[in-house]
Amino acid sequence: MKRVLVITGGSRGIGAATARLGAANGYAVCVNYRHNEAAALAVTEEITRGGGEAIAVAADVGSEADVVRLFEQVDEMLGPVTALVNNAGILETQMRVEHMDAARLSRVLTANVVGSFLCAREAIRRMSTRHGGRGGAIVNVSSIASRLGAPNEYVDYAAAKGAIDSFTVGLAKEVASEGIRVNAVRPGVIYTEIHASGGEPGRVERVKASVPMQRGGQADEVARAILWLLSDEASYSTGALLDVTGGR
Ligand code: NAP
C-alpha cells in the first residue's frame, strides 16, 4: 500500500523537519502551508531532488473549504492519505489574559483547534474501515504549554493545546476499532521561528536554563518522535501524549 503523509504547516520548523524525515522513510509527502510558498517549495524540491515524492498545497487549516480542497488535491496527486500530522499552529504576541480580545482568541482557537479537527475529519473519512478505508495514523502536535499554562505569555495558546490533548484522547478511542491510531507529541522549547511571532525571537535562549537538560530542542528531535508514532513500531500506542521536552 502506498503511504501518503499530509503535514499541515509543513513549510517551516517542526513540520518541515517532519516532511524531510517522512520522505526519507518512504512516504509520499504533502507539505501544506498558509502563506510562505517559497519555504514550502524549498522543502518539496529538496525531497524530489533526493528521489522522493512531494507536493506543496496552500490551504488555511482554519478554513473548512480550504481543508476539503487540500485533501481532494492529495487524493488526485498522491492518492488517499494514510498518515496525518496536525502540526500547523500559531501563537500571538505575549500578553496577560486581561488584555486579550475576542478576535485574537478566535484566531488562536481556529488555527490550533478547529484546524486539527477539520483535517482529522477529512483523514478519517479516507482512512477508517467504517468508510471502506484501510486504516492509518494521526499525530497531533500539542505543546507542553498544555501542562504548564504559559502564564504571562499566551494562556490562550496553552488552552488551545489543552484542547488538542483532550481531542487526541477522545478521537483515539472513537476510531481505535477502525484501524486508526491517534497520538500526540508535546514539544517543549524548540528552535523555530514561532517564538518571533510571540514577539520574542530569542525565547529559547531565555528559558533553556529551566529545562532539566539545559538546552532547547531541535525540530528534528520532535520529527523523530512524530515518525515513530506514525510507524508500525508504535502499533499498540493510541491516545498517548508523548512529551519531547528535555525533561521539562
Ligand atoms: P513555525 O516555525 O512558526 O511554523 C509554522 C508552520 O505552520 C508554517 O509552515 C506555517 O505556514 C504553518 N501555518 C500556520 N498557520 C497555518 C494555517 N492556519 N494553515 C496552514 N498552515 C499554517 O512553527 P513551529 O515552531 O514549527 O510549530 C509547529 C507546531 O509545533 C505548532 O503546532 C506549535 O504550536 C507546536 N509547538 C512548537 C514549539 C516550539 O517551541 N517551536 C513548542 C511546542 C509546540 P507558513 O510558512 O505559510 O506561514
Short overview:
The chain has 248 residues and is α/β, with parallel strands linked by helices. It has 9 helices and 7 strands, in the order E-H-E-H-E-H-E-H-E-H-H-E-H-H-H-E. It is 45% helix and 15% strand.
Report on the structure:
InterPro entries: KR_dom, NAD(P)-bd_dom_sf, Sc_DH/Rdtase_CS, SDR_fam. With about 250 residues, the chain is α/β, with parallel strands linked by helices. It has a single domain (about 5-190, about 220-245), classed as 3-Layer(aba) Sandwich (Rossmann fold), CATH 3.40.50. Helix content is about 45%, strand content about 15%. It has nine helices and seven strands. It has a seven-stranded parallel β-sheet with strand order 3-2-1-4-5-6-7, sandwiched between helices. Strand 1 (about 5), helix 1 (about 15-25) and strand 2 form a beta-alpha-beta unit. The site of NADP nicotinamide-adenine-dinucleotide phosphate has 30 residues, from helix 1, strand 2 and helix 4. NADP nicotinamide-adenine-dinucleotide phosphate binds near residues 8, 15, 32, 61 and 90.
* Quaternary status: single chain
Strand order of the largest sheet: 3-2-1-4-5-6-7
Helicity level, as a percent range?
40-55%
Strand content is 5-15%
Order of helices and strands: EHEHEHEHEHHEHHHE
- Distance between the ends: 39 Å
Which term fits the overall shape? globular
Unreliable stretches (pLDDT < 50, length at least 5) are: none
Number of helical regions? 9
Provide mean pLDDT, rounded: 98
User: What is bound: which ligands?
Assistant: NADP nicotinamide-adenine-dinucleotide phosphate
CATH class designation: Alpha Beta
CATH topology (fold) name? Rossmann fold
Q: Determine Rg (CA atoms, Å).
A: 17 Å
How many E strands?
A: 7
Total of domains? 1
- How is the biggest beta sheet arranged? 7 strands, parallel
Family: Belongs to the short-chain dehydrogenases/reductases (SDR) family.
Keywords: Oxidoreductase
Domain Ketoreductase: 3-193
Protein name: SDR family oxidoreductase
